[in-house]
Predict the structure.
Amino acid sequence: MSKQDKEIPPAPQKEFFQIDTIVSDLRSLRVASLENRQRLERPPKLPSRTILATIIDRLSAVLFPNRLGYLKLTDEDIDLYVKQTLEETLRDLLTQVLRELDYTAEHETCSSITTEKASTITHFFAKKLPNIRSLLDKDICAAYEGDPAAQNVDEVLVCYPGVAAIMYYRLAHELHSLGTPLIARMISEIAHSTTGIEIHPGAKIGPSFFIDHGTGVVIGETTVIGRNVRLYQAVTLGAKRFPVDENGALVKNILRHPIVEDDVVIYANATILGRITIGKGSTIGGNVWLTYSVPPGSSISQAQMRNKSFDDDMET
């Protein structure tokens, strides 16, 4: 490379970019947005996505220190590592919880009420960690037993995107249940970005849950999933329609997603919509579009759905 190629061009004058004008325009838009949302006196200071990602990584290490933690741990110092990591992580989580509560509070920012509530939420979340570990052990076993390609449970934990998404979900669900839905949703979207699997933290999912392959799976907010359920890639458990009120606004907080009972298998690209029930022990085949309940032990295939659609058309 010649000396001329290495030369760095001179920095343009500040006026060239008209920075002051851009900053002023952005401020005007920002102020207008705050006024429109009645937030001018209290601009939102939201939880940090970057910090939450770090928190989840640390919590994963706390739950599985030998496999997801520091590589040089010994039996003698593993508990100390878990203790120190957990203490640091909970302090950071407390700060993020406080940010969400401040954002949603009607009283002054950082009030004693908000601080006490944030401490309580963080404390109860910490106490749930052993139960979360127990559930994840069952999920990991379900993945190992349900996939002939899996060589051992350690491979399942460190390699499978479905297991990673479920781990994020289990942590986010507890935070959602404890009253921090924004943090919970941010964690679920971090998992979505990482794994391609979207599980709303409000969904209720039983033990021994396995998502094989996983890409494109969507599980809606009010979904209920029982024990020992297996999903394959691109399965959607979604809403069939979105009711609106007299003003044309979407009606929130209604039960609109499926109930999937125990021991159900749903194959790739199946779409199951609405507050319907998939009975215990049923099998839903690939590419099925299902909008009605099916009894326990059902086996629904794409060919059956085509025939039903044809019969319905003949009747009308």
Observations:
- Residues 37 and 111 are 22 Å apart (CA to CA).
- The two ends are 77 Å apart (CA to CA).
